[in-house]
Amino acid sequence: MSDAANPLLEADPLSLDELFSRDPLGLNDQDIGKIVSDLRRQRVKWKITEDLPKEAKAKPKASKKVDLNLSLGDLGL
Fold this sequence. Notes:
The chain is mainly alpha-helical.
């Protein structure tokens, strides 16, 4: 998935983080409305991403081979 299609990267974390860090009983209707509208907007973007074909979401495979047969000596232990 590209950065442009990632709704988490597009969201303003400071605005929601600040609201979520508050005591829920202290939120007013405007605060709750902002949370709900932001989450609804993100849900639409997530749904679009989820509906993409599997091939479009797949990350390219690394062509470099990695040796997974390591020993403690290889790690300097």
